[in-house]
Specification:
elongated; DnaJ_domain; mainly alpha; 66% helix; DnaJ_domain_CS; 70 residues; DjlA_DnaK_co-chaperone
């Protein structure tokens, strides 16, 4: 069974990345994997889009990120 990827891996950033880097990665990936832009594979794109959003939600909040990093 494969291990789950970290939120840093999902966004393709290093654990020490600043908020601006995390935001840029989120914007780039959310546009790339948006379900409306991937009409050939909507279900996979939707799952990836949700995963990207959740990773950004945690990593963009300093308190949530601190708890996640523990």
């Amino acid at each position: 069974m494969p291990s789950e990827r970290s939120y840093y891996d999902v966004l393709g950033v290093e654990p020490g990345a600043d908020r601006q880097t995390i935001r840029k990665a989120y914007l780039r990936l959310s546009l790339q994997h948006h379900p409306d832009k991937n009409v050939d594979n909507v279900e996979e794109a939707k799952a990836k889009f949700i995963e990207i959003g959740h990773a950004y939600e945690v990593l963009s909040d300093p308190e949530a990120r601190s708890a996640y990093d523990r």
